[in-house]
Model the fold of this input.
Amino acid sequence: MSRKQNRRNSPAPSTAAEAADTGLLPQEIARVREQIAGRHSKTALQLAKDLYKRSATSDSEALLTDAYKARINDLLKLGMTVEAKTLLGIVQERFPSALPRLTELGREISAQDGKLEEVVAPLADPELPAGDRELIETFLRQRIHDLPALAGVSSLPPEHSLRTAASALAAAFQAVTSGPVDDAVLALPEVSRRSPLAPWKALIRAIGCYYRREDEECHRWLQTIPIDSVPARLLPAFSAMLRTKPVSGAEVKLSLAEEKLVGLTADHGAALRAALTSLEDALHERKQKQVLDAARKAMAASQHCRPEVRDRLRQHIAVRADAQQVSRLAVESAIGGAPRECAYYLRLQAMGLEEQGHVDAHAEAALAWAGFRREAIKEKWFASGGLEDGILSLHMGQLIEKVPEELIDEIRAEMGNYRKPRDWDKNDGLPSPGALYERACKADPHPEAFQAWLSWARKNESGALADEVAEQWRKARATDIQPLLYLMESAEKRAAFKKSLKYLEEAENLDRLNPEVRRDKLRLLLSAALRHMQQRKTHLALKEIEQIETIPEVRPGEIASLAAALRWSAAAADRDKAAQDEQEAQLNRLMGSVAAHLLIVSVAGKAEMLFAVSSKVLKAAKIPAAELLAGVAKARALGEWASIPIELPREWIDPLMASMELPNCPADAEQMLVVGEAALDGYSAELAYTVSVAGLAKGGANAEFLFLRARSLPSSSASVRREGCLTASLELARRERNTALAGGILDHLNGINSSPGKRWRPGSNFGDDPEIASRAVPPQLLGKILEEEQTLKKFPGYGFNEEPKYAEDLNASLCDCPKCRARRGETGTGGYEFVDDGDEDDFEDDDFAHPGGFALSELLKGLGKMMGLSAAKIKELEKARANGEDPKTAMDRILGEISFETGAPETPKRRKTEKSAKVPPPEQGSLF
Amino acid sequence: MNQNALPIPDPYDVLGLVPGADDEQIRAAYLAKLKQFPPDRSPAEFEQVRDAYDLLRDRRRRAQHTLFSVNPEAPLESLVDGKDNDRRFAGPGPWLAVLKER
Done:
């Protein structure tokens, strides 16, 4: 500083007396102290020097010493130890009286210089004055952070308490920051309460408690650490790690080192868990904006996680959000990018899509599985053509089979738009079920795979392919019966009877007692015998009858009865009356006259011998009820077993109804049910209904009788009761674990006819809603339906009927789960809407309003669509109704002129969603 | 899948195996677990071990597990449970870095 500046900076003494006393003015002293406090040590030193030069008093010397101290401190902070040491030496030389005040600086310099020995050396002297000892210990407490160095100082003996304490603390600190430790490590008996290193003991215990998640205990230890000690420097970081307020009460900005420590060791898990819980809630509530916000927060809270864990989170969040139809782009933006499309993700995506349950999603799931397969083979999850590949291919085939062909074509066409024409292979991304099943069977020749392939080939392709599949199955698994049975049936259909018998023989060689083999043998031989009788080759038919007689019986008398009926027909063909009488007598002995009559008439009908039975009449009205019912049941049972339809003569309907209406109906439940099914086959809905009345009154098989009743009720006039009975019967069957009955009811609801090829009959699915299968049925509703139906003993007829009392409760029980709502198209948000297929034969309701006050339009629309009837036929039915023609007769007449295709259930309507089909973008490469 | 149902333990975890273990390894792991959880002393654990072995010893069922065992509706928390959540040990370095600051 120049003299001019000095003059400027040094105000003139305010009073001569003050200046005379101290040589320094208070302002001058204050100015120096200000500079020292403001850490402008260089300026402070210069000012102090000037003041000392002007007036060398004890005060100015003290002021100068302080300025030197500040300067030396600043040099030390800057790491300029040499300069600090030099300056200290100069000060000590010039101002020996200031030595005591400079001792600590000396220690600081020694400590920074790595000469800790010099600092602690005086402690070795047991005679060291207490004050000096305290100063050194205070210095150690406030300044020393290098415990290993302290533990190794040579100026103290190894057994000195300071060294042993430092050594124990160094080891414990290393251990507690590196992994879980026992209590023994934290005990630290070497460190006394009065040791200058005691704060380190508290720190180590606090760290131990922190990692054990004993936060309260941790906090208690931290509070015992003196604020001027070295360990206290960790208090702000601990506040952040424990998410507590700092000791000072004010927010402290963390230094870089503190932030790094917090970032490495803090508990981020709680925040992440909370964020994920919020995300789960948002997904459950299906609120798009909330989902996106929560996803964003969750990914932000996962910053501390390993990259692979974050990847997984991204993948799962993407799939879950996709299930809620949240915009994919928005989700990717929220989670910080597209999820990694590895095998794991594609599998997750495929399974998520399958869970959605509708056909659009099935198609997309199949694509995802194809992608998964590609990636999984690349990532070596399994080998191409291996067992896993086979199982996966089977699964994909079964999935794609559920997707309507037109949707598959649409997807393939859309995929084609993303590919260059020369690269495009239509089946590449979405193979046909046949190709998948073939791949499945090659990789995993399991009966399940072959059965799926064969079923698909039978439904969708020519018989030749199905035969080929069966042959492949046979070659791959020589001991399986199923392909032989199929080949036998196929050969029989082609009239290749010798071949058919050859396959049968092979099947018998494998498993003679197999019920399917026995059944098919019977069927084949029976069919051959009847065919030969039709051809009037009775000698051949008799040979087949002899073979039939060798088939082992399950129920005694059944083979003999069947053989007798066949022999009767053969005798009729030969016009051998005596033989006919003999066989008929034999049959009467075996089965009774009622069953014998029914069997003979049915077999003769199949053998085209109706002329022989045209005169045969058995007056059912004269037969006791018990005998009549038992006979019918017996004949039907035999017919069921031998696959011979046993029809009830029309003139027997009334006597059978009268038998059923007897106060104590002699038939048991099983017999009643057989008669009921016979009634449905015989187009007598009223008889079937009467059987159900008797059955429900008897009790014990309510599920079966309710199912019978449901099928006997006319859809036109008792649709609600039909629905109620189906609902109740299915629920009862489930509760009773009657899987056969439940399966039968479900088949009925899905339109699967148990007797393919049968003409329409009253029991057929007539617009019954498959959604009944997913209905929740509370016990009260079940009870109401059963109770009310038991009281309704009169057949409702085809006119107007009041709805049952349980109708309201029935409507309230529609299943409300998201999947069922989605299937019904009731999702609301998400953009599902049904698209009418635009059937040309759509009808206006007005066309069919009935003058009596109810409209048949809904029924007839369902009829038209389901049965493929033309508008003309529907109008004809309506006209017949309007003219008062008996509905049974009218339907028989009109529908009897039409042949029906049965078997395949109605495919679900394709639902158009607001979003476009999820076709992967072109950059996904070889998927296409 | 019912998100609220108790999660079925992974058979590989139960037997202490990594996915991809072969038949020999599966059998050896099963026998080791049998010694650890004999049926008379630890019936619940034995049942789990037995179920896991039954699944893995059948190659087809094992393959089906490999393919279809993931649950897209699994709670998101289950993805991070036990991983990266605990307070991590960082060694003495970061702590000393703070202590050295004045």
User: Anything to note?
Assistant: Residues 715-735 of chain A form the longest helix (21 residues). Chain A has 48 helices and two strands. Chain A touches chain B through 63 residues (CB under 8 Å).
